[in-house]
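Page 37, top half.
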Amino acid sequence: MKTYEEALQWVHGLLTFGIKPGLSRMEWMLERLGHPERRLKSIHVGGTNGKGSTVTFLRHMLEGAGYDVGTFTSPYIEHFNERISVNGLPIKEEDFLTVANKIRPLVEELAQTELGSPTEFEVITTIAFEYFATVAYPDVVIWEVGLGGRYDSTNVIHPLLSIITNVGYDHMNILGNTIEEIASQKAGIIKPGVPVITGSEKEEVLAVFRKEAIEKRSVLYELGKQFSYRNYSCTEDDQRFRFESVLGKQQDVVITMSGEHQVKNASLALMAITYLKTYCAFLVEDEHISTGLQKANWLGRFEKVSTSPTVILDGAHNPEGVKALAETLKQQYNDRNIYIIFCAMKDKEVSEMLTPLSQLAKEVIFTSFDFPRAATGQELFEQAKFENKRVEEDWGKAIATVKEKMREEDVLVVTGSLYFISEVRGLFVKKNL
C-alpha cells in the first residue's frame, strides 16, 4: 500500500467480517509480532457509558504531570486516525501506513487458517499495539474497550489497573439480555491481581463485579464506598466537588464538562490517579490534577457548538446516555424550550429509551443520515410512543427548519448515534453555523 487512503480502505474493507467475539485471532497476530502489548504500561477502561470521558480526564491529568499518554478510543468524531493518539495528537498518516503494511501480510496469512480473517476492529487494535510499542513509545497507554470486555480485542493486555464505568442495556444482541449477563461481559477485563475501579451503582451489577474480583484476587474500589464525591455544585460553565478516597486523598476540584455523570467519570479518573501515585510511583501533583481536569473535554459529549441560539451535540445512543442527557438538560435548561433532533442505528429500541427526553422537549424530530446501519426517521418515528414528534429525513433540513422557529433563548439538542454526531459536528465546525 502506497498511501494512507489506500491503507484506510484496506482496513475498512474488513468490516465485511462483522463482529467475531474471541481473542484467538488477536493472540495469533500478537504472537507473530513478538507481543508488542507486553512492552506497554496500560490502563484498561470498560463500561457502557462514560469510557471516553473517563479516558480524557485521566489523560489530561497525566499529561499535565509531563507523561506522554497514548490513547485508543472509538468511534472517532473528526478523523479516523484520532482513535490512535499520543497526547491528543492522532497517529501520523505515514506511521499508520507503515504499520498497516507490516501487519497486512499477517492478516492475509491468518485469513487462510481455521481461525479466519480478523475483523476491522481487531486489525485497528493490532495496529495500535504495534505503533505504541515500536514507533511512539508513550509512558502509558489508556485502552478503551470497544464492545463488552471479556472477548473484546483490547482484552489481551495485563494492565496496571482496570476501570469499569457503569453497566447498562446496550448491544444486548451480543452481550446478553439481562443486566447480570452484560455485567459478566464487562467484568471480563478484571485480571488476576489487578485492581479494578468502578462507577457502577446497581447492586446486581456490583454483585457480579465483587464475585469476579474475589475469584481473580483483585481489589475492587467502588464509587460511594472506597471513593466518593461531595459538596457538589454546578453552573452552566463548570461543576465543583470534593473528591475523597480510602487512600487518604481529598481534593476540591473543578471540571468544565457538563452533567453530574461527568462528576462520576472524573471521580473514577481521580481514583485511578490516586492508585497510580500510591502504588505505581507515578508523580502527579495537585496542580496537575486541577489543571488537567479543567482542560479535559470530549467532542460530541454535551458539546455546545453554537450560542445564539444554543445548540448542543451529545452522543446519547443508549438508555443510560439518554437518561444522563435528560438530567443535564433539566439541571441547566429547565426554564427553556428544548428541541431534540434524534437519529440512531437500526438495532436501537427507542420507544422507552427516549421517554426522559420527550418529557422535556417541546418537539422531537426524527431524522436519518447516510450510513449503512442507520434507521430511517420514519422507522424511529413509528417506534416512539409520545405525541410531540415529527419526521424530517434530511438532517440538514431538520436543523435549518428548527432554527428558523427557535427564539434566541431556546435550546436545540442534536443527539443519538455518535456516527451521526460526527457528521453533524463537521457541518457546524466547517460552516460555523
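Page 37, bottom half:
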Amino acid sequence: MLTLLKLLKDGHFHSGQALGAQLGISRSAVWKQLQRLEADSNLSIHKVRGRGYQLAFPLDLLDEAGFSNSCYPVHLHEIVDSTNAEAFRQINKGHSAPYVIVAEQQNAGRGRRGRNWESPFAQNVYYSLVLRVDGGLRQLEALSLVVGLAVLNTLKDFGLQAVGLKWPNDVLVGDKKIAGILLELVGDPADVCHVVIGIGINVNMRTATGVGQPWTSMSLETGMRVERNEVINALNKRLKNYLNAHAVTGFSSFHAEWEKNHVWQGRDVSLMAGLHQVDGVVVGVDQQGALRLCVNGELRTYSGGELSLRLRDDS
C-alpha cells in the first residue's frame, strides 16, 4: 500500500496503466489495491475515465531517512492501533529506551480518559516517546506540563504565535485544540519504570467528523502545508532539552514559563472528577504543577490523572 501511495502522493492524475507498469502488476490489480487503500486509510481517491486516479489532496509521507540525525531513535509504522500501545509492546519485548514511535495512522488513537483521538492517514503527527526512569520520582513531577511547554515551543518554531496551554494536557490556539498529551506509566515509579509520552499534533488536517470539540491544525493556522518530518525532528529536540532540564530541577524552574502561557488564567471553570464537579476560578498552578482554583473565596489545589477541566457555561 505504501508503495502505491508514494506514486500518488503528488496529488496529480496517474493512469492505471502507468501505475501498473511501475508496480509490475496488472491494471485490475491496481484497481484492487486502490480499493483496499481507500478502505484501510480512509483516503479519498478520484477516479476519472481517461485520466486515471488522483488523491483528493497531496500527501506528505513520513520518511525514516529524514530521522537519521534525530536526537532519539525513531521507529516508523504505517498503521498501528495507537503509538502508545505500540510503545508498550516494545517495552514488553525489552527494547532499550529512549526511542520514539511514530505512525502514519492510528486506528484506535486515544486521548485522556479513554477519549478517541482522530487520526487520519498521513495528515498529523502521532508520536510516543519512551523513557526509562530509575528511582527518580522528581522526574515525573508535573511531567505532562513540561511536555506541554516543549510542544508549545515546537509549534511556535513553525510560526504559530497565538498558541497556549490548558491544564493539564492540552495545547490550544484560542479556544481550539491543536495538540494533546497522554502520559502512561508501567513499572514502579519509586524504583524502575517506563513512561510513555504520547503526543498528537494536528498538522495538515483540514476536515474531521469525529472530533467532539473545537479544533484547528498547523496548516489551518498558517495557511500552508507543513512537513511532518520537520515537526517530529523539531519536537524531538525541544523535548530532549526540556526533559534534561526537568530531570535536574523538577518543575519549579518552569513554573513561571508555564503560567505565562496558560490561556485559562482567571477563567471561570468546572473541574470534573468522575461525577463530582467543582466550580471555581483558575488562579494558576503550584510549584508541583497542581491546579490552583479559587472556590467560593477559598484557594484549593487539585492534581491527578482523572481530572478534566472545562470552561463554565457562563464564562
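Margin note: The chain is about 30% helix and 30% strand.
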